[in-house]
From TrEMBL:
Gene name of the encoded protein: Nectin4
GO cellular component, one term: membrane
Cellular localization per UniProt: Membrane
GO BP field: heterophilic cell-cell adhesion via plasma membrane cell adhesion molecules; homophilic cell adhesion via plasma membrane adhesion molecules
A Pfam family it matches: V-set
Organism this protein belongs to: Corythaeola cristata (Great blue turaco)
Protein name per UniProt: NECT4 protein
Record-linked InterPro entries: Ig-like_dom_sf, Ig-like_fold, Ig_V-set, Nectin/Nectin-like
TM stretches of this protein: none
Length: 95
């Protein structure tokens, strides 16, 4: 995941799992958290899938002002794990 904070403010730390194990046919949580510094606020979280040859394809964008946008073929399969501030940008990938 990638997080965006207002320009000139980024000093916090993005925390992600190096590896997540999933079971075929079951939901999996893909964690991503931004440990913000004082007065910081995450405005957008972007989830990308890295494919063959290092290419990245957008999976989902979580935006504080514009809501969530999920690309096909992930529509209906990607949900935010928790409502509220985007410092917790974890998603649930269903099935």
């Amino acid at each position: 995941c990638a997080m965006a904070v207002p320009a000139g403010c980024r000093a916090g730390v993005v925390e992600v799992e190096r590896s997540v194990t999933a079971v075929l046919g079951q939901d999996v949580v893909l964690p991503c958290r931004y440990r913000a510094q004082e007065q910081e606020q995450v405005v957008q979280v972007t989830w990308l899938k890295r494919g063959p040859g290092g290419r990245s394809a957008e999976v989902a964008v979580l935006n504080r002002q514009h809501g969530e946008h999920v690309q096909e073929p992930y529509a209906g399969r990607v949900l935010r794990r928790a409502a509220g501030a985007l410092e917790d940008g974890a998603i649930v990938l269903r099935n």
